[in-house]
Amino acid sequence: MSKSLKKGCILAVVSTMVVSMFTGCGSNKESAPSGKVVEGKQYKGIDVSQHVDLKMYLLGERTQDFDEVYSEVNKILEEKLNCSLTVDFLSWGEHDKKYSLLFSSGEDFDLIFTASGWAHYEQTVALGGFYPMEEKFIQTNAPDVWSVVPQIAWDQAKISGIPYMVPNNQTEFGQDIYAVRGDLMQKYGFESISSWEDLRKFELACANDGIYAANDAPWYQYFQDKGMTMISGIPKELVLYNTQDPNNLDCTYLLDWDRFKEYCNEAKEMATAGAWSKDVLNSTDERQVALLAGRSAGMFWNSGSCRNFAKQANEAHPDWNVTLQDPCKNQPKKANSYINNGIAINKASKEPERAMMVINELYTNQALQDLTSLGIEGKHWEAIDDKHFKVLDESGYGVDSNCNWGWKNDEVKRTEYIENKTGLDDTYDAMMADFAANVKDAHVYDGFNFDTTNVATQIAAVQATVDTYYAPLINGLVDDVDASIEQLRSALESAGMQDVLDELERQTKEYVSSKN
């Protein structure tokens, strides 16, 4: 592909034309592999004289300045690796259904964001979709990544002894918080929202006032408030364990957990009152949209995203006084595994080696970390020193808002310098200090990753069943909770859930034994 055509693909206006243009960029790799040849061009001693065009999928929505930022990214990749990178997005509302179709349909692409549990890692490995990252392959094509990623991260990423992703390298807490309008808290008489009961009462107060409390139901907040978290690799939250009790090695099937029925009844109460939209299952909006538009009182997300969007809301509506609350304040915090965010290579990629080199650069090149995390220096941010940055304008790109999480690397990541701190900034700093001072004891299952290989067929059937029956239950959109739970139970049994549970029991016993 010519350099001018490549730039055209990157700078194209986001429209229905983008998909076809980007697909065209990808398809040219096979039909016109000669492209641009740079005689003698090498990377880490490897010949990269043949120009290639790569394609990557990320999750979320393309921001206004994304193409401008990635035009700068491509300048570096062209210089370093003699390649270009085009990017398509799977939106939050569609990735659950479309992610696996990229592989089953034979879509021509090279790189894709993935994560254990919530972003299709285990399921895609079971389908044979990801390129295996053998040690020699990593060391040859991404030696800097090999030296930076901790061994525990590679171990967490292994399935049947082989990692299929490069895990991110950051300390991140697996605790969503609540960015919520302080003016409404005051109106309804809430000084804080620090427990499930506080949250439930606040959601009902919002509903009674004709405003949504958030974009969807607070299911995660409920089971985390009870000290539970999901087994990594099992679809959705069908198997939980008590992460707060290292001595409790029980794996609890969700439909056998007495608290699940309790939650579903309370979710139905809130949904009926109008705490969230009855069209929630069909919505493709990102979770911040309703908050920023004034349709909801708040949003649940990770701490960084909550702070960023709370800032945006307060800049537009200072009277809202959007603040941060932790509905699970009394629970010690669980640090996420390294595989909670990562980047993988499509097994069908025609250029897996060059794709791995791109990962090496995204992961360890300071300029690429700055661009993909912060945007364009001088427009979106400015450097204070080698380690700190100041936000100039987040409206077109946003700090860590463009699915750069798969290659986040604490060794080169900048920390935000805030010159004139607001009350929101102080609240965020205090909350993060509380998190760091209240880290829970490690549980052996915190690093466990269910291998779906032996039950791939059952997992696929279970996932389809979950898509049909599970979401209405946890969002309170069923007529009869008891009957709906039994309907889900029956459907899961038919899908082979017992085989999954038996395989899980075998694997957890082996895993615990290997740690002793």
Query: Strand tally, please?
Result: 18
Discrete helix count = 20
Give the % helix: 40-55%
Strand order of the largest sheet: 4-3-5-15-8
The oligomeric state of the chains shown is single chain
First-last Cα distance = 55 Å
Portion in strands: 5-15%
Mean pLDDT level: 90
Shape: globular
Sheet with most strands: 5 strands, mixed
Question: Which spans of ≥5 residues are poorly predicted at pLDDT below 50?
Answer: 1-34
Name the structural class: alpha+beta
Q: What is the gyration radius calculated from CA atoms? A: 23 Å
Description:
- The protein has 516 residues and is α+β, with helices and mostly antiparallel strands.
- It is built from 20 helices and 18 strands.
- It has helices at 3-11, 16-31, 66-81, 95-104, 121-126, 135-141, 143-148, 151-157, 182-188, 196-208, 219-225, 258-273, 289-292, 303-316, 352-364, 366-374, 423-437, 456-474, 481-495, 497-515, and strands at 42-43, 46-47, 52-59, 83-90, 111-114, 158-159, 162-163, 166-167, 177-181, 228-230, 239-242, 252-253, 298-301, 322-325, 342-345, 381-383, 388-391, 415-416.
- It has a five-stranded mixed sheet. A three-stranded antiparallel sheet has the order 13-9-14.
- β3 (52-59), α3 and β4 form a beta-alpha-beta unit.
SSE order and pairing:
Layout lengths: L2 H9 L4 H16 L10 E2 L2 E2 L4 E8 L6 H16 L1 E8 L4 H10 L6 E4 L6 H6 L8 H7 L1 H6 L2 H7 E2 L2 E2 L2 E2 L9 E5 H7 L7 H13 L10 H7 L2 E3 L8 E4 L9 E2 L4 H16 L15 H4 L5 E4 L1 H14 L5 E4 L16 E4 L6 H13 L1 H9 L6 E3 L4 E4 L23 E2 L6 H15 L18 H19 L6 H15 L1 H19 L1
Parallel strand pairs: 3-4, 3-5, 17-18
Antiparallel strand pairs: 1-2, 5-15, 6-7, 8-15, 9-13, 9-14, 10-11, 11-12, 16-17
